[in-house]
Design goal:
It is a single chain. It is built from 7 helices and 5 strands. α3 links the parallel β1 and β2. It has a 5-stranded mixed sheet with strand order 2-1-3-5-4. The radius of gyration is 18 Å and the shape is globular. It folds into 2 domains: 185 residues, Collagenase (Catalytic Domain) (3-Layer(aba) Sandwich); 53 residues, no CATH class. The chain is of the alpha/beta class.
């Protein structure tokens, strides 16, 4: 059963208390699509996510089912807090709580599959830079921010806390690491106000930290459950029911394709509210694990 907000915060606090509080702090002195119907996101000037110009595709046959039962990996997370003065200045406890949300959701803590992915905070940078803080994807703001802050290699998750420009967030599919001169773009940019316990801007909508769960899903090669609509391949995962349109809210019984199964509104890769999310499927877990071995291991 999905935890309510109070219960979830208590669960995350328990996870934090269980040993997720260690961080390695690093000072930074760096210088200066997919459409959601949700009105709160639209009021920020755009849809939930941008079109990053990547074309999702199935994994090659040689990469499928390479991850065996019991697959597990711990992903180092470099958390880059970018601010405009005091705006967006996440506390250490908020950062640790967000890592706990990732660990809970990817472990099946809300009822879905245990994906085998765990996340460990490896470093924190803090940069006061308004240009970066308000940057949209594709411009000099994103590029200069990531060229300055990106840390590690394909197996390291760089998570940037900004306004995410006009969006809730974005993340490049892992194929970006194979593109000459573009690997520094790899990572996820997240609206800081979607993190657990930060503000009321997205209260009742995107306020439980699971925008990060969604964007990290893209980083691990998942597409939206509504990608491809009702066609045969859909999101390249067999156990996510076909879905023609993105979900807003949590509309029980939504069913937009004639194929068996209701729309997967509780799946982290739809556009439902955080309170509606509960799961990744075993098929999504397999695709993420296979993609990890193919692109990131």
């Amino acid at each position: 059963m999905k935890l309510n907000r109070a219960a979830r915060m208590a669960a995350v606090a328990a996870l934090v208390g269980a040993g997720l509080s260690g961080t390695q702090s690093q000072a930074s002195s760096a210088a200066d699509a997919c459409v959601s119907e949700d009105s709160v996101v639209q009021s920020r000037g755009g849809p939930r996510e941008p079109d990053l110009g990547q074309v999702a595709k199935d994994l090659p046959a040689s990469a499928k089912n390479k991850a065996k039962p019991g697959f597990g990996v711990t992903v180092p997370v470099y958390f880059h807090v970018v601010t405009d003065g005091a705006i967006g200045a996440l506390t250490t406890s908020q950062i640790v709580a967000q890592i706990a949300v990732l660990n809970n959701t990817y472990a099946g803590g809300e009822g879905g599959a245990n994906t085998g992915f765990r996340f460990k905070l490896a470093g924190v940078t803090r940069t006061d830079n308004a240009t970066w803080f308000y940057a949209n994807p594709g411009g000099t703001g994103e590029h200069s921010m990531k060229q300055a802050l990106h840390t590690g290699g394909p197996g390291d998750l760089n998570l940037y806390s900004t306004t995410a420009g006009d969006y809730l967030g974005w993340a490049y599919l892992p194929e970006i690491v194979t593109k000459p001169g573009q690997a520094y773009l790899d990572g996820a940019v997240i609206d800081w106000e979607s993190f657990l316990g930060t503000s009321t801007t997205y209260a009742g909508r995107y306020d439980q930290g699971e925008t990060s769960t969604h964007e990290v899903g893209h980083w691990l090669n998942l597409e939206h459950t509504f990608f491809g609509g009702c066609n045969a391949k859909g999101d390249f995962v067999d156990d996510t029911p076909k879905e023609k349109t993105a979900t807003s809210g949590c509309p029980a019984g939504k069913d937009t394709c004639t194929a068996p199964g209701l729309d997967p509104i509780h799946n982290y890769m739809d556009y439902s509210y955080d309170s509606c999310y509960t799961q990744f499927t075993p098929g999504q877990s397999q695709r993420m694990a296979d993609a990890w071995l193919h692109y990131r291991a």
